[in-house]
């Protein structure tokens, strides 16, 4: 293992340490084009997706065997390994999550123009989320989308940093496993029309219950923020509106829960109709 790729850092004043801590702020991530990834599973999934890992902070006293194996693999790929003591690692790591490894990577850049929906035995299913403010909700929806076999997640007029560490963590790293793009709501609407996707928007005043709508064809499921719901642009005549029946005092579910209900209803319908590519 090349010695120049494995460095030991002891000082809180080290430039690399300060830069890593600064990446917890969205402005720093935006200005540098870099992101910070916590955890073995998340880093592994980023690597599998071809995300460029620039350097890794590693604390041997905290790291389980899987983390040590990952560090060795990354070192073999000429990624700079920065070994740090526990006290220093705790300042770099996210919250109380200390798996002994944190990666610094280049932020993926994937635009709506680059998004292609592959043809196959199953019609594409796309998740569109508009105006999402909480990165944890975004990450949770991406995790659900990955589990439900969604072709892509499109963030319309997003109000949080897509690669916020909380979004990466909530997605369990699946944010790197499927196409996730951001665009304006107008651009997204145009994209859906161009690709002949049936647009099904969740609203508290939706015309029909979600399970009454056919979700087996090429479909985009659209959800808005919990605070404001969907913007008026989604009240186009060709956009279908559905509701999730609420039997208690609340008029809506958490947006990530609503996404799970709708996406797995689409999965159920496709399995029942025999068009699902998965069992």
UniProtKB/TrEMBL annotation:
Biological process, per Gene Ontology: methylation; RNA processing
InterPro entries, A to Z: Alpha/beta_knot_MTases, MRM3-like_sub_bind, Ribosomal_eL30-like_sf, rRNA_Methyltransferase, SpoU_MeTrfase, SpoU_subst-bd, tRNA_m1G_MTases_N
A Gene Ontology cellular component where this protein is annotated is: cytoplasm
Q: Which SMART domains does the UniProt record give?
A: SpoU_sub_bind
Query: Which terms in the Gene Ontology molecular function aspect does this entry carry?
Result: RNA binding; RNA methyltransferase activity
* PANTHER family in UniProt: RRNA METHYLTRANSFERASE 3, RRNA METHYLTRANSFERASE 3, MITOCHONDRIAL
Q: What is this protein called?
A: SpoU rRNA methylase family protein
């Amino acid at each position: 293992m090349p010695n120049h790729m494995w460095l030991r850092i002891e000082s809180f004043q080290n430039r690399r340490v300060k830069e890593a801590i600064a990446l917890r702020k969205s402005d720093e991530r935006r200005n540098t084009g870099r992101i910070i990834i916590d955890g073995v599973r998340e880093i592994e999934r980023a690597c599998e997706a071809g995300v460029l890992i620039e350097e890794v902070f590693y604390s041997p006293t905290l790291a389980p065997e899987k983390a040590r194996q990952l560090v060795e693999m990354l070192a073999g790929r000429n990624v700079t390994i920065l070994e740090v003591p526990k006290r220093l690692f705790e300042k770099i790591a996210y919250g109380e999550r200390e798996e002994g490894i944190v990666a610094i990577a280049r932020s993926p850049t994937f635009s709506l123009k680059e998004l292609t929906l592959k043809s196959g035995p199953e019609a594409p299913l796309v998740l569109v989320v508009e105006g999402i403010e909480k990165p944890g909700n975004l990450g949770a929806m991406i995790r659900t989308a990955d589990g439900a076999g969604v072709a892509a997640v499109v963030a319309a007029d997003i109000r949080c940093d897509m690669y916020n560490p909380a979004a990466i963590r909530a997605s369990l790293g699946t944010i790197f496993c499927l196409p996730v793009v951001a665009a304006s709501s107008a651009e997204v609407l145009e994209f859906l029309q161009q690709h002949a996707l049936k647009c099904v928007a969740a609203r508290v005043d939706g015309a029909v219950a979600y399970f009454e709508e056919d979700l087996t064809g090429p479909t985009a499921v659209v959800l808005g923020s919990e605070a404001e719901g969907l913007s008026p642009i989604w009240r186009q005549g060709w956009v279908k509106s559905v509701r999730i029946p609420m039997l208690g005092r609340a008029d809506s579910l958490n947006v990530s829960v609503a996404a799970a209900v709708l996406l797995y209803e689409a999965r159920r319908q496709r399995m029942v109709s025999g068009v699902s590519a998965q069992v």
